[in-house]
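Handoff note, outgoing to incoming analyst
You'll be picking up this chain. Sequence as last confirmed:
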Amino acid sequence: MTGSFTLAYVPGVTPGKWARVWQERLPETPLTLVQVTAAEAAEKVRSGEADAALLRLPGDREDLHAIPLYTETTVVVHPKDQELADDLSVDDLAGHVLWQPLDDTLEWASPPGQPPVERPATTADAVEVVAAGVGLLVVPQSLARLHHRRDLAYKTLTDAPQSRVALSFPIRDENPELVEHLIGIVRGRTVNSTRGPQQEPAKKPQQQRRGSAPRQQQKPPPKRAKARRGR
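Most recent structure output, in case you need it:
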């Protein structure tokens, strides 16, 4: 199979293992990985700049399919020298300033803690503010790992909203076969899965009946020469 495929992904998502499987199964179809912000991931797919995207839910799903893959643990990022319990609840954040960046994908009914004066533009900006000793940040665990610093730590927030990572592609998909290959890869299907595109199985050679030997064309016996009578 030829052509190409562009897969966008948001920060914190690591598509490398899936890209390696793609290369093994579809070596003639290059897979291009493009990191995008959480805010622009859906639009990249709708505009056709990417054939599919690994993004976080909830989020913009207009005209897009979204297949949830896994749910991330939500954590609280805090200065390392700040004493906090290992497992926190939303009530534990009541006395703290809680930064909520504009690219936040967690869906809060009512954000806990004290509201900040302004919202940082990105998660990376919010991490810098927390590192300066001001307030806390609630994010999916993969983002806490992505922005890890020696002066910061994070703890699990048990009753917070969670972020789900999903594979998203257009409802009007014009290349369903490649998308189906990718769905099979991210869901861990084998190459011979009945739900994905498969190679036509090779025909088995016809087996001979047990105990029967292959028939060979037998040559007729040579004619015997007649003996001559003596005179």
